[in-house]
UniProtKB/TrEMBL annotation:
One protein family per Pfam: PD40
Name of the protein this chain belongs to: PD40 domain-containing protein
Superkingdom, taxonomy of origin: Bacteria
Organism expressing this protein natively: Novosphingobium flavum
UniProtKB keywords: Signal
Length: 626
């Protein structure tokens, strides 16, 4: 009797478990800076006969020919935006085959001369650093070529390995690395984005014979071999180029030259002259060479004997060994729709795209800055529908005002919304920020959710912003940026009385929705940026990140249980100069407990992932649905 009852009870229990609804997935929103489409095209070397390599493609890039011209290897994100693997295909676009399958970044592939091995960059494994791996296509054995202790650099410093290229005899692999360099910011340490100092190295496929070929103090990238294996061609420039080249507004000021490096002696010879960014060089038959140029978003192909009629907007050209064909990518930077699906590195969480500075109200309304349009302040439902303009940004002086100086009426962008507890009002920052903050005014404003009742909370003659409301709605913390008046301030919203919380280069404060604890970013004396927490009375200040690379842009999860932020701890995933309009291409989204424990990287793409926000899970079903 007892046995029968137990069976019935177990069956009923199993039935109840089977009938129980599955737990709803969390949704993580974050912004991504990078192209939204990339297709591979093949053309004759003179630009004629252009056609797509693959009829069905969406996000393919970094293609290279095999030495015999029979195969092309490339990177694809066809399994999910942000997740990249290596593929190969015959030169006519047939026999497509996936070669790697790992949630990490696999990129920058190069086939050995006999087509048996493929070398590529990957950040797979526990280190999450960019290394050169070699895949045996016959046995499918994988080897971390640069993972040996004799090759690895100081793990507290930049330590990435990029852009492998096989020698014509298959006895050597050239690559670039920033190993054992320093974490240096551009503009002599004035900013938080890092420079990248690269050198060219060679190593045997078994990991022996490591040799550095190029000098310190410059950045040298994208090596390719000469047909006789005696020389390597690369681009080279001042290290500051690794910043200037990747920013649209600055790339026109940058210059690199194409150089030839003697493998035996390391002697470097410039092959080009004049201004402009020159990248992706390759030797061609007959003593010729080719490369691409870049100025802002315009790129083109150049030959040592003159230009050819190629489309202007192309990236990463690579030529067949006989010089007859060239493959390249055509990209699109059109913004993704709000809440567009992204690859989820945590299966229990849906990853979605968002515009910048997303902030949820308690009733589930999402406010953000629509940088993809004009950086105005907008609201919408949690699923991205029902978008409403709340405050219009301005980019031109008001009519009749002096356009050569301050306009009188403020101009600028609307950033960093923070909701009042009643979900009816919010504060936000308006004016000139980032690189223009020294020349422009900005302040904190309060506004009703329908766009009415705009009210200045701080002065319109200085530069303040990035305000965050206390859980009870009675105070706000914000940052002040003025000589002699720098740091975090707290305002009593009823009396408008202001008190000093911190002094110095502190920024982007966020008040925990669950406690009297404020998170913020601080620039250290050595130029590094780290995350700190502090109570509103100025006590219990604590540094919660300590890695020598920058940690910044911290925000709270909606329930206050986690801090989300951006970290450069794992370094670059590619040569920095090759990116387009990506300020921190090494930036990945992380989470940690408020005390700095349980740090976890949440994204792992080659792109800049930032501005995270978990959608609240306690919302009504019609709001929380994604």
């Amino acid at each position: 009797m007892r046995k029968t009852s137990l069976i019935i009870a177990l069956a009923a229990s199993a039935s109840a478990i089977a009938a129980a609804p599955a737990a709803a997935k969390e949704t993580l929103l974050f912004n991504r800076i990078g192209p939204t489409k990339s297709e591979l095209y093949v053309a004759n070397a003179d630009g004629s006969g252009e056609h797509k390599l693959l009829s069905a493609s969406d996000f393919d890039y970094a293609a290279r020919y095999s030495q015999d011209g029979q195969w092309i290897v490339f990177t694809s994100e066809r399994t999910g935006r942000g997740q990249s693997d290596i593929y190969r295909v015959k030169a006519d676009g047939t026999a497509l085959e996936r070669l790697t399958d790992d949630p990490g970044v696999d990129d920058q592939a190069s086939l050995s001369p006999d087509n048996r091995y493929v070398a590529f960059m990957s950040d797979r494994g526990a280190s999450h650093r960019a290394n050169i791996w070699v895949l045996d296509l016959k046995t499918r054995k994988l080897t971390n070529l640069t993972g040996a202790a004799a090759i690895q650099g100081d793990p507290a410093k930049p330590d990435g390995f990029y852009r492998p290229a096989w020698s014509p005899d298959g006895q050597w692999i050239a690559f670039t690395s920033d190993r054992n360099t320093e974490w240096k910011s551009h503009d002599k340490g004035a900013a938080w984005e890092h420079l990248q100092e690269l050198a060219v190295y060679v190593v045997r496929p078994d990991g022996t014979g490591l040799k550095r070929l190029t000098a310190e103090g410059v950045t040298t990238g994208s090596p390719k071999w000469s047909a006789d294996g005696k020389s390597i061609i690369a681009y080279q420039g001042e290290t500051e180029v690794s910043w200037l080249s990747r920013v649209d507004q600055l790339s026109m000021k940058a210059t690199t030259q194409i150089v030839s490096v003697d493998v035996a002696t390391g002697k470097t010879t410039e092959l080009t002259s004049g201004a402009g960014v020159k990248l992706y060089p390759q030797f061609l038959p007959g003593g010729r060479f080719a490369y691409s140029t870049k100025s802002a978003q315009i790129s083109g192909i150049m030959y040592s004997d003159g230009a050819k009629p190629f489309p202007a907007n192309l990236r990463e050209p690579a030529w067949s060994a006989d010089g007859s064909k060239v493959i390249y990518e055509r990209i699109d930077n059109s913004p993704l729709p709000q809440n567009a699906p992204l690859y989820s590195w945590k299966p229990q969480v849906d990853y979605r795209y968002t515009d910048v500075f997303p902030m949820f109200a308690k009733d589930g309304t999402l406010a953000l800055s629509n940088k993809d349009v004009d950086t105005s302040l907008v609201t919408m439902n949690a699923d991205g529908t029902g978008k409403q303009l709340v405050f219009q940004s301005t980019t031109h002086c008001a009519a009749g005002k002096n356009a050569s100086g301050h306009c009188g009426d403020m101009i600028g962008v609307a950033l960093f919304p923070s909701w009042m507890p009643d979900s009816k009002r919010m504060v936000f920052s308006f004016g000139g920020y980032w690189r223009t903050r020294d020349q422009n005014v900005a302040n904190v404003k309060m506004i009703n959710r329908d766009g009415t009742g705009v009210e200045d909370l701080t002065s319109t003659t200085s530069n303040t912003g990035f305000a965050s409301i206390s859980p009870d709605g009675k105070q706000m913390v914000y940052r002040s940026w003025a000589k002699g008046d720098e740091g975090l301030r707290i305002m009593d919203l009823e009396t408008r009385k202001v008190r000093v919380l911190t002094n110095g280069w502190d920024n982007v404060p966020g008040w925990s929705p669950a406690a009297d604890l404020i998170v913020f970013t601080r620039k250290q004396q050595d130029g590094n940026f780290d995350i700190f927490t502090i109570r509103s009375d100025g006590t219990d200040e604590k540094r919660v990140t300590t890695f020598p690379a920058s940690d910044a842009h911290a925000v709270w999860s909606w329930d206050g249980k986690k801090i989300l932020w951006n970290s450069s701890e794992y370094g670059f995933k590619d040569e920095a100069a090759l990116y387009d309009n990506s300020f921190q291409p090494y930036g990945q989204v992380w989470s940690m407990n408020p005390d700095g424990t349980d740090k976890e990287m949440l994204t792992d793409s080659r792109w800049e992932d930032s501005m995270p926000a978990f959608a609240p899970t306690n919302l009504p079903a019609n709001i929380a649905k994604n």
